[in-house]
Design brief:
ten-stranded mixed beta sheet; alpha/beta; about 40% helix
Length: about 260
C-alpha cells in the first residue's frame, strides 16, 4: 500500500491540469498514489487523465457519471484511497517538489497532530501577488474564526477522515466543504499545525474576494453557528461567525485593500 494518497477533483480542467499533475509526479517523495476524479467534464479531461494513468500506474483516474460537486468528488476519491495519509491537490495549483516529503516527515514525527498544512504563494495570470503568513497550531477558536488551513496544502491522517465520514454534502454547504470538515475534525479531537514552509503556488485572482458570491458567505456563517457549541466556543464569540456577511457588504475598494494587506508579499 502507498504511504500517501493524493486526491484531486477535475471539472473541465484539460487546459490547466498538466502542471498540477506533473508537480506531483516530480515529488521527491515517491511512495504515493494520485487519485483524480473527473466530475462530469465535457472537454476531454477524463481521456487525458487516462493517458496519465497509462504512463504512470500510480495515477488512478476515476469518473463521476455526472457533475456532483467538489465534496462528493473528493469523497469518491477517498473511497478508493489506500494511503495512511491523504494529501489534497487542486487542478490549477502547483506543489513544490519537496511538499510531500516535508508533510510526511511532520506527521511521522508528530503523532499528536492529524492535520499538517503549509503556506502558499498567490498566483494569477500576471504572476505572484501575495502569500500566506499564518503558522503554528490552530486552536478551536482559530477554526471558528476562519484562521484555518489552505485546503490544497493539507495532508491528513486517513483515519481522521474516516472518523468524521469524509466531506459533508448536505444542501446549502455551498463551497465551504473545507470549513465544515475542519469543524467536524476538531470536534472529534483532531488538531492541526501549519508549518512555515511554502508548499505550493495557489492560483487565485487578485479580485477573488470581491467576486465571492454572497450565498457562499451565508453558508460559511451558518456552518460556524452550527458548530459553535460543539467546538466549545463561548456565545460571546458568536458575532465572529457573522464576519463573512459583514465583509461581503463592504465596498469593493475596501475589500481589495484588506485582501492586499492579508496576502502581502
Amino acid at each position: 500500500m502507498p504511504k500517501v494518497s493524493i486526491i484531486m477533483g477535475v471539472y473541465n480542467g484539460a487546459h490547466r491540469m498538466d502542471k498540477s499533475i506533473q508537480s506531483i509526479i516530480n515529488q521527491t517523495f515517491k511512495d504515493w498514489e494520485f487519485i483524480i476524479c473527473d466530475d462530469g467534464s465535457s472537454d476531454g479531461s477524463f481521456e487525458k487523465l487516462q493517458e496519465y494513468a497509462k504512463k504512470d500506474t500510480r495515477v488512478i483516474a476515476i469518473k463521476n457519471p455526472k457533475n456532483a460537486g467538489l465534496a462528493q468528488t473528493l469523497n469518491n476519491c477517498l473511497s478508493v484511497a489506500k494511503g495512511q495519509y491523504i494529501a489534497r491537490m487542486d487542478d490549477d495549483d502547483y506543489s513544490y517538489p519537496d511538499r510531500l516529503e516535508k508533510e510526511v516527515s511532520f506527521l511521522d514525527t508528530h503523532p499528536e497532530y492529524d492535520i499538517v498544512a503549509g503556506g502558499r504563494k498567490m498566483v494569477d495570470e500576471k504572476g505572484i501577488w501575495g502569500k500566506d503568513s499564518f503558522t503554528g497550531e490552530r486552536s478551536n477558536l482559530d477554526i471558528f474564526r476562519g484562521i484555518t488551513f489552505v485546503h490544497p496544502t493539507v495532508m491528513v491522517r486517513k483515519e481522521a477522515y474516516d472518523r468524521v465520514g469524509g466531506y459533508s454534502t448536505y444542501e446549502g454547504i455551498g463551497r465551504e466543504e473545507d470549513t465544515d470538515l475542519w469543524c467536524k475534525m476538531y470536534i472529534d479531537g483532531s488538531k492541526g499545525f501549519i508549518i512555515p514552509d511554502i508548499m505550493l503556488d495557489y492560483f487565485e485572482s487578485r479580485n477573488s474576494m470581491t467576486r465571492r458570491k454572497y450565498k457562499y458567505r451565508i453558508s460559511e456563517a451558518k456552518i460556524k453557528v452550527k458548530y459553535r457549541k460543539a467546538l466549545g466556543i463561548s456565545v460571546l464569540y458568536l458575532p465572529l461567525a457573522l464576519k463573512p456577511l459583514v465583509v461581503g457588504l463592504l465596498p469593493n475598494a475596501v475589500i481589495k485593500m484588506y485582501h492586499k494587506t492579508k496576502f502581502k508579499k
